[in-house]
Amino acid sequence: MKRIAIKNWPKLPNDLIPIAIDRNSVDYVQASSNCFITGKPKLILMARTENEAAASIKYASRVRKETGIDVPFSFRSGGHGISMASVNNDGIILDISKLKKVEIVDINKGLVKVQAGAVWGDVAEFLNRFHLVISSGDFGDTGVGGLSTSGGIGLLVRSFGLTIDHILAAKVITADGEIRSVDKDNEPDLFWAIRGGSSQIGLVTELLFQADKIEPENQYQCPITVQNIDFIIDDLESFVHKWGKWIDEAPLKITSNLMFTSFDNNQILVKMNNFWVGMPNQIANDAFKKASKLAIVKKYDQKVVDYGKLVKAPHNPHKGQQPVYVKNVLLNNFIPHLGTKISDIVHNQKTIGVELRSIGGYLNTVDANQTAWADRSAVIFIAFWSKSKNNKNINRIFDSLQKVDVGVYGAYSSDLSMKESYRIWPSETAQKLKNIMSIYDQKHLFNQGHYLYD
């Protein structure tokens, strides 16, 4: 049996030694990294079962208690989280990527059980053959656990809403190491909190989803029509105004995502990706045609793909290969001079790009009190990407939009300040989360990433 001993820490229980990785292990570097940053933890526990995950949580709690130190304790599922909190320095990482089973519970009802260590691309590939979709993020290597507890803004959000809007039940391991089965009738406050409250309440290991059905057609099992257009823009104010009017009038079966980057001669390159649920019909073609007339087209492509290929998982090894800093806002309407504000940010030399997404539709139909994701009036999502490590200066670049925001989507924010956390969970939502935390995690064991306490 291998030896794992960390100075001044309590002895690792025998049942955790087979899943332990320390700084002397050959796979330490890979296991201690996510997509955005490489950590230097003292210990990584690669749980293979829920019981091993529960034992790992108990051990982390014991380490803090016996050392008297607030030793960092992170959860890692897919390892793609923009908050970068899935790894840490000098602490413990609990990796649940081996908990990745996906199974159909009831095909007629669209009930699907997914373990939180799976990645969404693999889930999509599995569901595709059953003509089912679960509204999720837009990158296949994103972990189910992190996205599902944070909200889940994805490529089909206007049609199907957030990922959390389709969770019917879950298994959660709380700070005492108890594995709890929760739903609207069993520990309903905990069930409310894990849908949008992120990882500050407990470790979600399994989720029961109500998936949506897409009828197969031609050779496609689960068809999604994708329109990709590149524009070169001089006047972003005018373009954003036209786009806003177009998407407001477009059918809810269309979700539209834009990416703005700086181009030559103070121009802006706009990459528009529009997603229609199903094969294109006359309504879809009319909407696509209007989109193509918003500005002069530089490049155009339209195709039908299966849902499984839309969010395909590349399974790239994580090694901190994408060092970025991301901020975002949620808006409930088009504010004055929105295009000008975005243009100013895009042309800043520290900016990689700015995203603008339509997120209304189904998302707006869910009662704000039903989950811990409170910003149900939001119709626009804007995200700002930068490579700079000077976060204070980067935050200033985004101030013009941050000051008018409705809220913030936590899964898409690298800002781990308490101020940002209160943007993610405002007023009554924050208070309810803190009340629930006072029951299930009094010692704030789960305080990595975005969390709330004064």
Structure description:
- With 454 residues, this protein is an alpha+beta fold.
- 26% of the residues lie in helices and 24% in strands.
- It is built from 14 helices and 18 strands.
- The chain has helices at 28-31, 50-67, 120-128, 144-150, 157-160, 188-194, 236-249, 282-291, 307-310, 338-346, 391-397, 399-402, 418-424, 427-440, and strands at residues 20-21, 43-46, 73-76, 92-95, 102-106, 111-115, 132-133, 167-173, 179-183, 203-210, 212-213, 223-233, 254-262, 268-277, 297-306, 325-331, 351-358, 380-386.
- Helix 7 (236-249) packs across helix 10.
- The longest helix has 18 residues, at 50-67.
- It is globular.
- Residues 37-214 form the FAD-binding PCMH-type domain.
- Keywords: FAD, Flavoprotein, Oxidoreductase.
Task: Briefly summarize what is shown.
By secondary structure, the chain is of the alpha+beta class. The protein is built from 14 helices and 18 strands.
- Helicity, as a percent range: 25-40%
Low-confidence stretches: none
What can be said about the biggest beta sheet?
7 strands, antiparallel
**How would the global form be characterised?**
globular
Gyration radius (Cα, Å) is: 22 Å
Distance between the termini: 44 Å
In spatial order, strands of the major sheet run 15-12-14-13-17-18-16
Protein structure class: alpha+beta
- The count of DSSP E runs of length 2 or more, i.e. the number of strands, is 18
Strand content: 15-25%
